[in-house]
UniProtKB/TrEMBL annotation:
This is Alpha/beta hydrolase. Pfam families: Abhydrolase_6 (PF12697). Keywords: Hydrolase. One of its GO terms (molecular function) is hydrolase activity.
């Protein structure tokens, strides 16, 4: 396992770095000892991409950059740094140049679209009583309750922020589709995966929080990317 690249995990909307908890434990069990999880402010794509770049610049050697949900847009924008060896998308947005997550969602709205509401300060929240069914229907009610209460709301304007130069056009990438996703339409995930021509795509019978409900196959995908990046 010597020589494996570092892994940097990027969360999405309505959560923080701790959403990766189960994947972190699984990666550690497999001998990955250079693990990092970005805590993004969710105030704009530019802010989040720069925060991610700052972490990437602190790491010597190759990195597998992993994004969940909106975190996929972040790694698409920030993944152009030379030490990024691979990109892994977990039920994630992978916009092209000039595209935003909001635009992609409007083209094929997700099932839980109506359960998202803004507050008076412009932050978007998933209604707490609808969080379980919307974001994490394959977790236990208690697990979903904790996610609902601790959700990290993004500024609504972030949905409209567009990608400049998508890193997936230059870097090898992997994609995981959640077939029961209610936050990003599964067909949108499949379309984004197809056009990036990933090294591998897997489909899981999972809701949006596949990183929490199915950490083993998600980690399998990250490990495959790491092994290929390390051998390269």
């Amino acid at each position: 396992m010597a020589g494996r690249p570092a892994v940097v995990l990027v969360h999405g909307f309505w959560g923080g770095a701790a959403h990766w908890a189960n994947v972190i434990v699984e990666l550690n069990k497999r001998g990955f000892d250079d693990l990092h999880a970005v805590e993004n402010p969710l105030t704009s794509l530019a802010d989040d991409a720069e925060r991610t770049r700052k972490m990437l610049r602190q790491i010597d050697g190759p990195v597998v950059l992993v994004g969940h949900s909106y975190g996929g847009a972040v790694i698409t924008e920030a993944g152009d740094l030379p030490n990024v060896a691979a990109l892994v998308y977990v039920a994630a947005f992978a916009p092209d140049a000039g595209e935003s997550p909001g635009q992609i969602s409007q083209e094929k709205p997700p099932a839980a679209f109506d359960n998202i509401a803004p507050d008076s300060d412009g932050y978007l929240w998933i209604k707490q009583d609808a969080f379980h069914e919307s974001f994490a229907q394959d977790l236990t009610p208690d697990e979903a309750l904790v996610m609902a209460v601790t959700q990290k709301a993004p500024l609504g304007s972030t949905f409209g922020d567009t990608i400049t130069a998508p890193a997936w056009r230059a870097k090898p990438c992997w994609y995981q589709v959640s077939t029961a996703d209610r936050m990003i339409h599964p067909d949108n995930e499949r379309r984004m995966a197809r056009r990036m021509n990933p090294r591998k795509t897997i489909e899981l019978d999972a809701g949006h929080a596949s990183l929490a409900s199915q950490p083993v196959p998600v980690t399998d995908l990250i490990e495959a990317a790491a092994d290929e990046a390390g051998s390269g």
